[in-house]
Design brief:
Largest sheet: 6 strands, mixed
Shape: elongated
CATH topology of the largest domain: Molybdenum Cofactor Biosythetic Enzyme, Chain A
Oligomer: single chain
CATH superfamily of the largest domain: MoaB/Mog-like domain
Number of helices: 8
Number of domains: 4
Strand order of the largest sheet: 9-6-8-7-11-10
Helix content: 10-25%
Radius of gyration: 31 Å
Strand content: 25-35%
Number of strands: 29
Structural class: alpha+beta
């Protein structure tokens, strides 16, 4: 545990993530993730449940890299040499007759090169003319050739027996394209797990309803549902409840029956009506509470019953988003069968203004990624950093990592940053 001023404690986010993943993997050791076979076109963002091997060489034939002429010539063709053009090979319509020395065929890019042809000569290096008293053309080489034959081998992309997709690999658009090029139309993937979401607060009303003083339109379900969707996962069930301990307890029990993961937002701090932590200890167990982090300190992890992971997120929207990225995203990947856990890209970047803050906790500050006149990247940090301000997320690309012992950082200082826009927003 790391101690803050005023004896406030919490786990460092790295320690918390490690502890959470250890507990999750212990649960999954006794659980086989179900899988299903689905059409390839429906597999985007799914996770492969098995290794897939290519059954033949791809593309499976020698193909021309250029538009030009395929020629039979035992040695490298020389400037001034002639060939008789006896046919052509185009995409999907290969030349199938036998060729002899001194003969050539016109050929287009990607078309099959006959086995007896050893060179493709690009159009730019050829002059054509009609053979006298004949319907045939002849070509002659007008420039010296490079050492390239301009022919792709039969296994230019993949060789028979190569692994084209590994178990636990996320399926991307490029992977879908590659699998299709191997003739694969169905793929075995892990089934999606179900997530239940509880939003609590007496002050919450649905958008579209007239608001009176002291109430707020509920937005966290919209924000977190769509952030999780951008991560590649779906919320199965959402329940919005007032701060009533009996109703909250029953709701959490029902969510645990219908889902493999339960998340709550709000009611996890130390207020009079923050019931969630005590409820979880009644129906399961809280493993730890509070992070040594800003924003996101009031966070709880535990289990409902013996094996339903529970994550209690703070009610402030920015804090909830930070927890989604730092803790929940790795958990979702483990639960979905991902082999190599993906994390936000981290790099160092300079800040464009002085930064003053209260030291004590490490802080993740929202920032815009910009480029100066010299083409160098820098972080433009807006003044609004309240964890309650959803608007501060809209133009942000980065989370700047501020060390806990720093209260003043000068303009031009280089700090670690996490690229998060392409990840979750």
């Amino acid at each position: 545990m790391t101690q803050e001023p005023f004896l406030r404690e919490g786990l460092k986010v790295e320690e918390a993530r490690k502890e959470v993943l250890k507990e999750i993997k212990n649960v999954l050791d006794n659980f086989t993730i179900p899988f299903e076979s689905i059409p390839l076109e429906d597999s985007l963002e799914k996770i492969s449940s098995t290794d897939i091997f290519v059954k033949q060489n791809i593309p499976g034939f020698r193909a021309s890299i250029m538009d030009g002429y395929a020629v039979i010539h035992s040695a490298k063709p020389q400037k001034g040499q002639y060939w008789k053009v006896v046919g052509d090979s185009s995409a999907g319509k290969p030349y199938t007759k036998n060729l002899s020395e001194g003969e050539a065929i016109a050929i287009s890019t990607g078309s099959l090169v006959p086995d007896e042809c050893s060179w493709v000569i690009p159009l730019e290096q050829i002059k054509t003319e009609m053979i006298k008293d004949s319907s045939f053309e002849k070509i002659h080489l007008i420039d010296d050739l490079t050492n390239s034959t301009w022919i792709r081998p039969v296994n230019d992309q993949l060789s028979e027996g190569d692994i084209v997709l590994e178990k636990g690999q996320k399926i991307t658009p490029s992977i879908i394209g590659l699998l299709a090029s191997c003739g694969i139309s169905y793929i075995s993937v892990f089934k999606s797990f179900k997530i239940g979401l509880l939003i609590s607060g007496d002050e919450l009303i649905k958008p579209g309803i007239d608001k009176s003083t002291g109430l707020i339109w509920e937005s966290n379900s919209f924000l977190i549902k769509n952030i999780i969707k951008n991560l590649g996962y779906d919320i199965n069930e959402i329940s919005i409840q007032a701060d009533d301990k009996f109703k909250l307890k029953n709701t959490l029990i029902e969510l645990a029956k219908n889902n493999q993961i339960v998340i709550s937002i709000g009611g996890i701090s130390v207020g009079k009506k923050d019931y969630i932590k005590n409820i979880i200890n009644e129906i399961g167990e809280i493993k730890f509470w509070k992070l040594f982090l800003k924003p996101g300190r009031p966070f709880a992890f535990g289990f409902i019953g013996q094996d339903i992971p529970f994550f209690g997120l703070p009610g402030n929207p920015v804090s909830a988003v930070v927890i989604c990225l730092q803790i929940l995203w790795p958990v979702f990947q483990v639960f979905s069968g991902v082999k190599n856990i993906e994390t936000p890209l981290r790099f160092k970047i300079r800040i464009n203004s002085d930064l003053k803050r209260r030291k004590g906790r490490p802080e993740l500050i929202r920032s815009k990624l910009k480029v100066d006149q010299q083409g160098e990247l820098y972080a433009d940090i807006p003044p609004a950093q309240s964890s309650s301000q959803i608007s501060s997320l809209i133009d942000s690309d980065l989370l700047i990592e501020i060390p806990p012992d720093k209260d003043l950082l000068k303009k031009g200082t280089y700090l670690w940053a996490q690229l998060f826009r392409k990840t979750i927003l």
